[in-house]
Design a protein that fits this description.
- The complex is a heterodimer of chains A (about 700) and B (about 280).
- Helices cover about 20% and strands about 35% of the residues of chain A.
- In chain A, strands 23, 24, 25, 26, 27, 28 and 29 form a seven-stranded antiparallel beta sheet that branches. In chain A, strands 38, 39, 40, 41, 42, 43 and 44 form a seven-stranded antiparallel beta sheet that branches. Chain A has a six-stranded antiparallel β-barrel with strand order 1-2-3-6-5-4.
- The radius of gyration of chain A is 35 Å and the shape is elongated.
- Chain A starts with a helix and ends with a helix.
- In chain A, about 40% of the residues are buried.
- Chain B is about 20% helix and about 35% strand.
- Chain B has about 280 residues and is an alpha+beta fold.
- The radius of gyration of chain B is 19 Å and the shape is globular.
- In chain B, the strands form two sheets. A six-stranded antiparallel β-barrel of chain B has the order 8-9-10-13-12-11.
- Classes of the chains: A alpha+beta (about 700), B alpha+beta (about 280).
- At the A-B interface, strand 2, helix 12, strand 38 and strand 40 of A face strand 2, strand 3, strand 5, strand 6 and helix 5 of B.
């Protein structure tokens, strides 16, 4: 049926090609009509869903190399209820800490995460409607259509924010309505598909494959049919192909997430293999069993051929049929009984399998900064994957080079399981956090903390030296003598051109203001030929540093005699030697962990380079955490912060005071007035103060 | 019992019992002053945090120059690649790469004692850096008196004491080469045979065990290489690297003078101030 209708669809185009040019005029007119019709369909479909399209921006926390790395991510979503629920992908919201949605009318609204379902890669956010000024105007809401009615060749629109370019639409056709992944990302079985380490996905999904162009940023956005209904949630794409989660599945999952915050599913602990290449004619093979899972406990074994489930005969010939069976099992009530009839060694047998709750694959993860490691809750799935004896303890997922955990002897490594801390056993991540915090709260800190851990079945001990992170000013350059001028070497040819070939030396090119040189009788274009009677004779460009080096070898505070040539005549100028001015690299710094921003003092050379007078004050941004509050507010390295709200920033002290006052005040937004390049700017930082204050960052 | 390992790059006429004794004497005299500095190099790209930031552990040799725990080492080895690039190319708008040594520790001998330390001062021109141990209690440290030195001479054989890595018990070892050149630009620097040139940060001694200098990098500054800069010119063979300032000997008097200034100016003021919350 699907193929006939597809063939019929192609026929007019083939006929058009074969009929030749004598019908060209008539055909061209038909073409235009077809196009106009298609255009009308597209417009209608677009207008029904486009207003409900949202762009999602979030701050993410990931764990890598033993530390927390903040970042920003962008995705797409669709408003599916008048209460402001937004349907999107779970891999968009994964580890998100702060969600902002931009509506189709360009207004930006905060959102909170209602629930996530990694196994289908779906998630639901809810918009904070109280932020909308005209909350009485109903939200545009998209309708979820029936994806089971989609056929190969149907036109579809993909909407979303590819490459963060919001409110984009592309057109394509459905290429396949029951795509599963085997091989590559999917491993060899459909239930082996993973987008993230330690987390399966797509167990129950048969994707709608299409060729509407989608790119990073489209994730979570709607796939729309010509009736203007959402029939899929775009999840994957590349090479001109896109893959959407069917709306039939998305509707069930989103309903469950909205109602309960999670999707409750049954689990029997069986992996099935279709019989396509086995020579068998009926049933489905038991590929593997979870050792202590419900099916194993009931007596099922790998290699059994299941032929009947309750009252229904079962035959799974192809991989595309596996998700349907897995879903049928998952949809059962948790704790219900499933009767499985199977063949083993030619004999028919039967077991009753009592389902259990399907638990999450991947546990919570967090970073422990002072110990230089990240650790994760051990779930049942994790326990099996890592071949652990039990679920007690926490799994080390990363160790920071140079951190305490790596410096321990023996060092902790990724994959180790921490069982006890300081002699007290640790059952889970919550207990580990408690132990960690109680140790780090001690004053003074203990010199060592005893850690018991398991590595590949071996029970070991190590000692960690807890080390809180300290901020230090950069070490200074060794103080040396300095004269506040810039010079260039006068080489032979230049001296000759200037009319005095014997006047090799160093020509003054700049006299720095507010230095002793500025007060001395020195002028631009003076050529310094001697320093304290010593002849200065640069021979090559490589001798450019000769004057400065010679000065550096003298004693700070002593007087130096400069013999110079001015307007063809020799003169002598005495000048007291100053200490070298500190460079930007040596300038004292201050790191604010709340806003994740490091600033430094303004130095003499900053003023010279930027032509800033003494009255230009402030602090200069050195480092900004990209997904920290200051980074999200658009501050950049090099900015000169001059005012924060109503506080004038003169130096590091006043900056620090201003930031502490902000923490007490908790304004909705903090306004930074700064100079960037040659322009002034206002940057708005909008921290979530709850997060700032509770951000213990372990 | 110490395991002595002798590595020789050249055959020389006076090989034999006297050389063996000399090597042994120099090691006995100075090995305990050669320490290992362990640190974490924090590299940041572009001034914004994220995956571009890298941390990695590193170890370099150091020389104990005061029983209070003052250690001398190479500034370039502490500053890392970012420091080198900055020196040669200056600050480049739009591109920022910084590297900072943190979590410094001084390891005495074969991991006998480990001490926390802080970077006190640096001299980028001379390629020297001074580190101070911060948690020294009652331990006695053996230090080299810099003022007791003898300057190198052309043709003279010099000896550099170093330590093997942790997997070899940090056993002391010695390498030797002759002085084969001298320049006074940008400062007085001695050229040694290639076997010594690769020992950046190592002190060198004469055959009587007198301190003669430190092997350093003398990277050209942006100022002095104006219009003719090729950051890769120094890569390649050791002789090419030496031509471009890698592995020259800074004489002992310069080292002593700079250290004196560090003591007067930087150590007299106490610990460097902390910055941040």
């Amino acid at each position: 049926m699907k193929r006939e209708s597809a063939a019929a669809g192609w026929f007019p185009l083939i006929a058009l090609f074969l009929c030749g040019s004598q019908f060209a005029w008539a055909d061209a007119r038909g073409d235009v009509q077809d196009q106009q019709q298609l255009r009308a369909l597209i417009n209608r479909a677009r207008d029904k869903v486009f207003p409900a399209l949202v762009n999602i921006k979030l701050v993410t926390s990931r764990y890598y190399g033993g530390k927390e790395i903040k970042g920003q991510a962008v995705g797409s979503g669709t408003i599916i209820t008048p209460e402001g629920h937004v349907l999107t992908n779970q891999h968009v919201t994964n580890r998100g800490r702060r969600f902002r949605c931009t509506l189709s009318d360009k207004r930006e609204v905060s959102a909170e995460l209602i629930g996530e379902d990694p196994l289908t890669d779906l998630a639901v956010l809810r918009l904070d409607l109280s932020e909308l000024a005209d909350a009485s105007i109903p939200l545009p809401v998209a309708t979820l259509g029936d994806s089971t009615r989609m056929e190969i060749g149907d036109h579809v629109l993909a909407m979303g924010s590819p490459f963060a370019l919001s409110r984009s639409v592309t057109l394509g056709v459905v290429s396949n309505t029951e795509r599963v992944f085997t091989g590559g990302l999917g491993g060899s079985d459909p239930d082996d598909f993973r987008l993230e380490r330690g987390q399966r996905t797509g167990l129950f999904t048969r994707w709608i494959q299409h060729d509407a162009l989608i790119n990073p940023g489209n994730s979570g956005g709607p796939l729309v049919n010509m009736a203007g209904e959402v029939i899929g949630v775009n999840e994957l794409g590349g090479g001109g192909m896109g893959f959407a989660i069917p709306s039939a599945l998305a509707k069930e999952v989103s309903d469950a997430l909205i109602a309960n915050g999670e999707v409750r599913r049954s689990w029997v602990g069986v992996s099935f293999k279709p019989i396509e290449k086995t020579g068998l004619l009926r049933g489905v093979l038991v590929n593997s069993l979870v050792e202590d899972g419900p099916a194993a406990k009931a007596g099922l074994r790998a290699g059994d051929l299941v032929i009947r489930m309750d009252d229904e005969d079962i035959t799974l010939r192809f991989p595309e049929e596996v998700p349907l069976m897995l879903k049928a099992i998952a949809d059962r009530e948790v704790g219900s009984s499933i009767r499985l009839r199977f063949l083993r060694d030619g004999k028919e047998e039967e077991v009753n399998v009592v389902t259990e709750k399907l638990e999450k694959d991947r546990g919570e993860e967090t970073a422990f900064r002072s110990w230089g490691l990240t650790a994760m809750e051990i779930t049942r799935f994790c326990c099996r994957e890592h071949r652990l004896d039990d679920m007690d303890g926490v799994l080390v997922t990363g160790v920071r080079p140079g951190g305490s955990a790596m410096a321990a002897r023996p060092p902790l490594q990724s994959g180790n399981v921490i069982k006890s801390v300081g002699g007290l056993s640790v059952k889970n991540l919550t207990e580990f956090i408690e132990r960690y915090e109680s140790i780090m709260d001690q004053d003074p800190l203990p010199e060592y903390v005893l850690i018991e851990f398991v590595r590949k079945g071996e029970n070991k001990l190590t000692l960690i030296k807890p080390k809180p992170e300290e901020d230090r000013n950069p070490p200074p350059e060794l103080a040396k003598s300095w004269i506040g001028v810039a010079v260039q070497p006068v080489l032979k040819e230049l001296a000759k051109t200037l009319g005095a070939k014997e006047h090799l030396g160093f020509r003054i090119t700049q006299i720095y203001p507010r230095t002793l040189a500025a007060q001395a009788d020195l002028r631009i274009a003076d050529i310094i030929t001697h320093l304290n009677g010593k002849r200065l004779k640069p021979r090559r460009v490589e001798d450019s540093g000769m004057f400065r080096r010679t000065v550096k070898n003298l004693e700070i505070g002593k007087e130096a005699r400069l013999t110079l040539v001015r307007d063809g005549k020799e003169a002598e100028v005495a000048i007291k030697l100053e200490r070298t001015r500190i460079t930007p690299d040596e300038a004292p710094r201050y790191r604010n962990r709340d806003f994740e921003l490091t600033v430094r003092a303004v130095t003499f050379f900053d003023r010279v380079d930027n032509r800033w007078e003494e009255d230009v004050q402030g602090v200069i941004v050195v480092h900004v955490e990209s997904a920290g509050w200051a980074g999200l507010g658009g501050l950049l390295p090099g900015d000169l912060i001059q005012r924060i709200d109503d506080f004038q920033i003169m130096d590091l002290v006043s900056y620090r005071e201003a930031m502490e006052k902000m923490l007490k005040r908790e304004p909705e937004r903090v306004v930074f007035y700064l100079i960037r390049g040659v322009r002034t700017r206002f940057q708005y930082v909008e921290p979530e103060w709850d997060v700032v204050k509770n951000n213990k960052e372990h | 019992m110490l395991m002595h390992i002798f590595s020789l790059a050249l055959l020389f006429a006076d090989a034999g019992t006297s050389s063996k004794e000399r090597f042994g004497q120099i090691i006995d005299q100075h090995a305990d002053k050669i320490v290992t500095i362990r640190f974490v190099m924090k590299m940041q790209m572009g001034g914004r945090g994220g995956f571009g930031d890298q941390d990695f552990e590193s170890e370099i040799p150091g020389l104990m120059i005061d029983p209070s725990g003052l250690v001398l080492c190479s500034n370039t080895q502490l500053a890392g690649f970012a420091g080198m690039m900055k020196r040669m190319m200056g600050s480049m708008p739009g591109f920022q790469m910084t590297s900072e040594p943190t979590d410094l520790e001084v390891v005495i001998g074969a991991d006998k004692h480990e001490f926390e330390a802080e970077l006190v001062a640096r001299d980028t021109d001379l390629d020297l850096a001074w580190i101070r141990i911060t948690n020294l209690k009652d331990q006695e440290l053996h230090a080299l008196a810099l003022e007791d030195h003898k300057l190198p001479k052309m043709g003279q054989r010099l000896y550099a004491v170093h330590r093997l890595g942790k997997h070899f018990n940090r056993a002391p070892a010695i390498r030797t080469g002759r002085v084969c050149g001298h320049t006074d630009t940008p400062r007085s620097l001695w050229v040694a045979e290639e076997v010594l040139a690769s020992g950046i940060g190592l002190p060198v001694f004469n055959s009587s065990g007198k301190f003669a200098g430190v092997i350093v990098m003398q990277m050209p500054t942006r100022e002095s290489s104006e219009g003719d800069f090729n950051p890769f010119a120094f890569m390649g063979s050791m002789s090419a690297m030496q031509q471009n300032g890698i592995g020259l000997i800074l004489p002992a008097d310069e080292v002593a003078k700079a250290t004196k200034r560090v003591r007067e100016v930087h150590l007299a003021t106490g610990k460097p101030a902390k910055g941040g919350k």
